[in-house]
Amino acid sequence: MSGFSSEWLDLREPADKAARAPALLAKLNEWGDDRALTILDLGAGNGSTYRSVKPVLPDANWVLADADLKLLLEAKARHSDVEMAEVDLAETPLPAVDAGLVTGSALFDLVSNEWLDRFCEALAGRRLPLYAALSYDGVMEWHPVHHLDVAMTIAFNRHQQTDKGFGPALGPLATEGLRKRLEAAGYHVEIAPSPWRLRDTALHLSLLEGIAIAVGETGQVPDHAIVDWLAFRKANAGEASIGHWDLLALPSA
Q1: Cα angle vertex 21, ends 38, 107, to 5°?
Q2: Roughly what angle, to the nearest 10 degrees, separates helices 6-19 and 69-78?
Q3: How far apart are CA 22 and CA 7, in angstroms?
Q4: Which of 61, 109, 133, 190 would suit a FRET pair with 44, their CA atoms being 20 to 30 Å apart?
Q5: What's the structural domain count of the chain?
């Protein structure tokens, strides 16, 4: 799995928290409020999902799973009540943890079709519910507009489907892939939009630079055009909406 720095995870956390679909968090609270739960959080990083979902399910125990021990130790330093599981999710999509709920944020758009097949088969085999948040959906809207916005988005989406450590990534197709597989396995699945709303923030600037680098690696947009687009965006930060989906899948009774 491609690594992410703790600095990047902290930078995006406020936007992630604000974006999470409140209707699905409410349903998660309703479902889990009277259950003695252990939550297995996949790709946990330094604990962002824990911090966002803990108020919804305050009595749950958490196991944070990630391949990056440094990030897990940072999560443990911040939250002494969590347990850690250092595991390569590329090899083990669903660790053998005695959990009652699986969560994952900004994870499933990084994985491949083959990985998702293995994950959903394991999840359904154990009849575990899933809360999968903040999967990129391929839609980026910028204000003010620039004539290269569409070309940059198409190229960026192409880059999002390159290998991120799990094989060719699903990118914007991830949520639909999850929904179809889990509905076929007898789950009740709900999805809801969870877009980032950005306006002239440090995250906004970092995202612009990351998009420019990713698009440059595809070769689909000339370098000089990327430079022009990035300069325009930095000079006219305005507002941006970066689309994501949240998904809640509960096994049918």
Answers
A1: 60
A2: 60
A3: 26
A4: 190
A5: 1
